[in-house]
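Ticket #4471: complex job returned nothing on first submit. Input attached below:
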Amino acid sequence: MLLKLIGYIYNQNTLWEDLGRILHFLPGWLKVFLAGGFAIVFIAAFLVIMVMFQTWLERKEAGHIQSRHGPMRVGLWHGWAQPIADTIKLLLKEDITPKACDLWVFRLAPIVVFIPAFMAYVCVPFGNGLIASDLNLGVIYILAITSLVVTAIIMAGWSSGNKFAVMSAFRSAAQIVSYEIPMIIAILSAVLAVGSFKMGDFVAAQQNFWLILFFPVQTIAFLIYFISAVAETNRAPFDLPEAESELVAGYFTEYSGMKFALFFLAEYTNMVTVSAVATTIFLGGWTLFGLENIIPPFFIFLGKVLFLLFVIIWFRWTFPRLRIDQLMNFCWKVLLPLSLIILVLSGLLASVNVYDRVFDLINNI
Amino acid sequence: MENNYNIVFLFMLAGAAMGLVGMGLATLIRPHRPNELKLDTYECGPKTVGKTWIQYNFRFYTYVLVFLLFDIEAVYLIPWAQAFKHIARHGIGDFIFPEMAGLFIFTEMLVFLLILIIGLIYAWKKGALEWTKDHRKIKRMTGF
Amino acid sequence: MSEILKTEEFLMNMGPQHPATHGVLRLVLTMNGEVVVRAIPHVGYLHRSTEKILENREYIQIIPYLDRMDYLAAMCNELPYVLAIEKLMEIDVPERAQTIRIIVFELNRIVSHVMWWGNFGLELGAFTPMLYGFREREEGLNLFEYISGQRMTYNYMRIGGVARDLPDDFSERTKNYLKIIKEKLKDYDGLLTENIIFQQRTKNIGIIPRETAINYALSGPMLRGSGVKWDIRKGEPYCSYENYDFEIPTGETGDVFDRYMVRYNEIIQSTRIVEQALEKLKPGEFQAKVPKKITPKGEIYFRVETPRGEMGIYLVSNGTSKPYRFKVRAASFCNLSIAEEVMKECYMADLPAIIGSIDFILGDVDR
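Support reply: We reran it on our side without changes. The output follows.
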């Protein structure tokens, strides 16, 4: 019994099979509903904890980069309870709706920004079988859903009736839309190696050999994806929409209280999303060269995601910000041609079956 | 869990619900004391001058045109990438052998990509990828 | 068609309550999308009518007020005043006092520039340099606290000398501080100077040609950044600066990066001066014999080279114990006058960089 329970931690597929056998009498739609509900609760809890942890990590990391300690007071050990205190503070903040705003758009924007951020988790494989729904178009789905964030940002910026917010919204639109193309093409060159859009297939293919190890083609593809993803999430050095030295706080200048918190939550959720996608597509997901049989796969996945988050935060506290024309030049004149070259190279490798041969070779060792 | 799109819909509802619950919860416990100054638009202290919602030149349309081009390109590339591996392994029907199939469809896509790359170079040379701040240049390009 | 598709310019206030305007400067921007068509600075939010107050104070009481003008370089503000009075009353200042003055003056330049360096990074979106700059500034402030008891408003200079003699281990501590600064400059290189994003953000923006810089009466790093080799310490030496060996760093094109490099090199030059001054420091008097009643007579304009440029004191005295007219030529104020000229047709994102490169202190601008 105990062995079986431990087995579930390593391979949740068997858990689903067993549960399906036990609950076979339920109608199909109810099963879907239950499974979806379970996934939603799990992911929501995961996200809330991740976002809280990230705010703590960001402050601590920033602190240590800047030769200071960061939060140390709340909670006893290194200010671990700071995010909880922040949440309570945000809940208790007065929610100010300025007169000049477009009321309903202003109110809707924080919800609209959060929905795609949350929906992207439908097909993120957290562990062996720990995936809400392994969509057959998973990669395309995530790309499509995450770029919907720009709608909410435009809504927020435009409806605020604040000039800084409007400018920030347009900057954000230009940026997110532009960086999408190198991102898609970088991912397509990875798709060529695996031949599927299913997130599960990506992990399965990389069981013993991660895609990023195909040097230099997939390594550069990973870098292109990662840079574009940082730009998509409006993080430094691409944080032009929130450039505090120019645009105060950008599109959420007029937001306060819980509405601001939702934007904040969405931004950090998106950071987790892009890290999770990068992990799954290029870094082998929850696998770790066979160690996934010893360490629970979920923790391997978490470790990789946290590493990427660490790097993203590291970027923010090291680099100055780019300017809008430099940002666009970098996207269109550096990343896009580079990603096209990578796609061609990747196609060449795939057309002579290099990927399959390497995968087979490694798997047979 | 296998390929099931109903869950996507559930997630959408849940995402909206989370936002609404968060905002609703805050409504119950937060203070609400608006006054004239608080509800003003923030513009660094002074009162806002003029309208906020005006038409201004964001110099983005040339990018948008190129973006559309490449986004559609990506749409064409997606099924190609999906089918690529299968064809490279098994060939297309009987008339193209598996040994040549991969290179064949790769070349096909290469032609398509080359046309696009030429297009990109053209746009680049034409100056469509410049975020220019020169008013006269913009006027010459767009007429307004 | 073009009726519907017209574009409009809009007015936007940047400041007084804005994260990037160094206190309470207000810029009224005429914007065309992302491009700033015109930026008009509005000053006066911090006006305290210091000059008028000083006309009602006795000569010894004036020194603490001067500290509060350019509060990041308070030592440098006190110096021109005491030098002016000394010149009017023909007081001979002892050599030790002169050397001490040079040491604190140049230390204050280092402290001021280091903090400017940090804030300049912040203006370009790099947060970390600010805390690094402040870290090194704190070390410098410790030294000032050690000699004067204060960290910001020192009230250290006196007519005829300085308020207190240096403590015994001051020169050791100062040498240690200079060593730290030299080491940290390497960090600064890595974080900003050699960073490609930083270079792209600062090169070829906010260009001030040589002629314009002279016509606008710029001074200090703003002038030297445009390639004019003018430094009052060399041109009109005071406190026996002529006995020290240092260079005047200058820029070439007069863009923001050149001004950055000028200030950066000035830190290095200042460490050289302080090192030489510490060598020259000999025991002796630190305060000249000064008459009990300070009643200078005449008119004088005395200028020194503060971290921000030429600071001059214009003083008319009619022989009573209070000045008849007291006027300060503040470097920040004169340098800010070029803002409108240099901020024409630039990107919104360039504004903070240009504002930062002007390096003004609102306390000094508004007085």
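The two ends of chain C are 53 Å apart (CA to CA). Closing as resolved unless it happens again.
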